[in-house]
Amino acid sequence: MATAIPPGIPQDIQPSETLLEDLRQDVIHLLKQTVDIVERYNSLHKTAERDSSQEKTEFSGTAAIRQALTNVEEMALRMAVVAPMKAGKSTIINAIVGQPLLPARNTAMTATATEIVLDTNYPEPVLFVPEETLALFKKAAVKIRQEYNRNRDNVKAKLQKYPHLDTTFENIIRNDGTLFKEETTGVESVREALQLMNDLVRLASQIVPAYNPVKRMRELPQIRVAPFTSEGEAINTALGNLVIIDTPGPNEAGENLEIKNIFAEQLERSSLILVVLDFTQLKTEAAKSVQETVQAIAEIRGGTENIYALVNKVDQRRGGDMTPAEVREFVQQEFRIPSSHVFEVSAQRAYCAARFLKQHDLGEDWRTRPEARDLAREILRDDWEQNLKEIDKDAFTKKARKQWYERSGFYQFFTKVISELIKIAAPKVIRESLNITHGFIHKLLEDINLRKRSYQATLGTLEDEIKQLNQDIKKIENSANLLNIIEEYQKEIKNQIASEVSELKNKARADVSHLFSQKEYEQADVLKKVMLFLTDFAHKLTNDKSREDHLRIPFSSRHDAEDFQGKIFNLVSQEAEKFFGDTQKKIEKFVGEKILGLKKEIEEETQPILEKARERLQMTFNVQLSLPDFQVSKASFGNSELRPEALTRTVNKFRKKIFWGHLYWLIHEKLYEIYTETIQEYVVYLNKVVEEINRQIDTQANQIEQEVNNYLEKGFKVEAEQYIEYLSSYLKDYRTTLIESQEYQRKSAVEKEEVMKQLEQLEEDAQKAKCDIPIYSRRVEEVLENYGSSCDSPANSSNQ
Predict the structure, then answer these.
(1) Which of 7, 24, 372, 539 is the most exposed place for a label (fewest CB within 10 A)?
(2) Which has the closest alpha carbon to 234: 79, 98, 49?
């Protein structure tokens, strides 16, 4: 399989890697200085005498600036892997590391994004859960236990649809300790921890949505593991490493709004999106889900330039299937992904090959090892057990290498294409890190100014301001009016949607029952056979059993019956989809207007408090209410469960028979005899077609109502309540600064002078860093120009 340099990378003029590396080292030096400034600031106002009950103080941008430094030091290419269920996402990631790392099952698995850092220093995988993230998981587990103890019947009812979560749920209820650790080592232990983590998120979203860990997760769980390497070939470059983001895809998210938000956030943060497509499903109903996935990604990313497609399961290609060239063309036409961004792989074969090759200590019993047997099933195919007995280890190992290096497509994609993409992504990582640092340095200077002013205030003034802030915080946290506003909006939206859904059902069903008589003459060229039966079809859709025969249409072949039924079904469903489309727009507009209304009312309630605090503290608050957008899923009607009925019947027929009237006279008579014949028929029942459409109409209309209710509980309400909580936390941060200023006032004159001297030096250093960052940013832009803007649009050249 030939592999070209990714489009958009100049073929003849490559930018100097030395120039880029020099820039990277300079930025690392600047960011280290910035981290030092922040850490000095944090240590300055830490006092041993502080009451342990007070809030822990650390500048809010500390973690982000440290991460910006880490990103430039590691120069990682963040690649989000997105796939519909069963397309092979977990198998692809497992193939990259050559180990069964990620859990998989028939139901949706991924509920929280996970970083997989390919690091050669970790031959055994290690899962790191940041302390703050671990605390969120622990709190969610506690809240689930508390809710279960308060209302067991309600919790059990919610979980009836999710039997695959029973084991984890029971584990949470029984275990009041730590479910998993900050650090977990080993393939099996990591896989078990990941499953528990994802199940916990799904349980929280159903039982205690306000405490779903993903809502407040600032740092992702991270796995560090060496990529699979054979004969010294590893997936990395001198400029950086690959960080794979295992994301919950849109269809895995389902109706879970929090998971959809994770999906969107990780796509925005990633330099490259890898969409996994199933070769066996490219031209089926499943393809529609994939198209919607790619559309969602393109909307978030602003196009498909940084989207690549891996078409998996190409080992199942058979005669008459699409060729590789046809696949690339098809993906470009159907999914709008450039054909040069489309690669074919066989993940299962690659995984089995990598897993086998990773075993260096196979003894004489190597044929009995699961690594060998799994690979044999894939590459020896028919009679694989006998073939495995006859092949020697060297020959089998050679076949395994051939699978990895040639036939699976993995080696070409991940060692050639990815390494080039890492190079063009490097300047983007530097630019993003500088932008993040610049924003937080501005916030740090603002904090320093507040602290300096509060240091100059009297103890009495500080005490008064702290009392006022306490009143503001209490007013926000205990505002019954705010909660009433949220509940009133919820109630109004629910009532309106229930009315819209009821009207939708009536309109769609009523139209279906009259559809054939309306469309009869328009469809005469297609539905000639039904013409005689449809003159008064609307009247025949009653319980009049005597007329049932008028609704059955026989065909002599299954193909003709299915073709006819499909056309009837499409005719009816298209009409129903029009009603759904109109209702969808109406609901989205109504909910959108209510979102704006709620936002306005909450802000009118809280802004006076913020405004007074802003004037007193002379600070610019940046707390905004951001309610998630709402979209109704598009209606889709399927004909897959409806089949014509196969029947046999016996009919009497006549045939001619010659009778000789006289032996001597050549005279004969023509007579007829009766005989029976069995006929195979395939019957389409028009009333059953209508019944199936009406069933689907009811189901999808109910789904719309459920989507709205789910949004109100897990998006609308939770976001509004968290805004109130964040607002309170914001004021508490400033209260903490004032409390620390009180401690400053109690210091001796010498100590005060020393603290103020350090604070002024910090301000000077922070101001210098703030001025230096734009200089480095301009150097980044110069590097980007040398790349011919390929960092921003790696597919540009292919589109020209």
Answers:
(1) 539
(2) 98
Contact by Cβ (8 Å): 536, 525:
no
Mean pLDDT, rounded, for 535-560: 57
Report the amino acid identity of residue 687.
N
The answer to whether 483 and 476 are in contact (CB under 8 A) is no
Write the pLDDT tens digit of every residue in 696-708: 888 888 888 877 8
Integer Cα distance of 45 and 54 in angstroms = 13
| 144 against 228, higher pLDDT | 144
Pairing of strands 222-225, 114-118: parallel
> Looking at 61-65, 681-685, 724-728, which range is the least confident one?
724-728
Distance of alpha carbon 93 from alpha carbon 344, whole angstroms: 15
Separation CA 82–CA 110 (nearest Å): 11
CA angle 375, 377, 381 (to 5 degrees): 125
Whether 186 contacts 125, CB under 8 Å: yes
**Three-state SS at 185:** strand
Q: Which ranges of 358-458 would DSSP assign to H, the alpha helix?
A: 370-379, 384-390, 393-402, 410-412, 418-455
**What is the distance between the alpha carbons of residues 657 and 672, in angstroms, rounded to a whole number?**
5
Please indicate, yes or no, whether the overall pTM of this predicted structure exceeds 0.70.
no
Record the tokens describing residue 445, joined without a space: 């200077």
Q: Which residue matches tokens 């690594």? A: 371
320: region left, alpha or beta (phi > 0 left; psi from -120 to 50 alpha)? left
- In this structure, are strands 183-185 and 126-128 parallel, antiparallel, or unpaired? antiparallel
* Residue partners of 201: CB distance under 8 A and separation at least 6: 111, 112, 140, 212, 213, 214, 258, 259
Bigger pLDDT: 368 vs 506: 368
- Altogether, the residues listed in the chain come to a count of 800
**Mean pLDDT across the stretch 244-271?**
63
CA distances, 274 to each of 294, 344, 356 (Å): 10, 12, 26
Predicted pLDDT of residue 5: 40
HSE (CB half, 13 Å, CA atoms) of 136?
A: 23
CB-based contact 541:687 (threshold 8 Å): yes
Task: Read off the amino acid at residue 653.
Answer: K
Is 713 buried (19+), middle (13-18) or exposed (0-12) by CB count in 10 A? Answer: middle
- Which of the 8 DSSP states describes residue 121? T
Question: Which two structure tokens, joined as six digits, stand for 220?
Answer: 């992702």
The Cα–Cα gap between 351 and 610 comes to: 56
What's the CA gap between 411 and 418, in Å, rounded?
10
Place of tokens 């060998």: 372
Q: Record the tokens describing residue 682, joined without a space.
A: 């395939």
Cα–Cα distance, 298 to 222 (Å, whole number): 26
Q: What is the four-CA torsion angle of 521, 523, 528, 532, rounded to 10 degrees?
A: -40
CB 618 within 8 A of CB 453: yes
At position 321, the amino acid (one-letter code) is D
Give 87's DSSP letter.
Answer: S
Which H or E run contains 135?
A: helix 131-150
Which tens digit of pLDDT belongs to each residue from 708-733? 877 777 667 777 776 777 677 767 77
**Range 454-476 burial, b when 16+ CB lie within 10 A, else e:** bbebeeeebeebbebbeebbebb
Q: How far is residue 659's CA from residue 300's CA, in Å, rounded to a whole number?
A: 85
